[in-house]
Amino acid sequence: MRSPLEIYANDLEKPQLLYDWVKENNELLEPLLKNCLQNNNGDGKAFLIEWLASTIPLLLQGQKLDIYKEDPLQTLRNLVAEKFIA
Q: Is a pLDDT exceeding 80 seen at residue 86?
């Protein structure tokens, strides 16, 4: 199963860093992904908002990142930047 993080991998100078990280952390990410998919019955926006709410605290280890509910893809892009660029 692919991680939503991969959507913005090409924003990175070295996208392979993100892909490798996702692969190494699959045991952490996959249950969250499956749970959010099951909870949202095909509603992509609701899925992404729930996934971000579950994932941001784990990935940023206490740092705060606001979720833009009108545009969760922007939040996802910001998360990728915070985790893999900052």
A: no
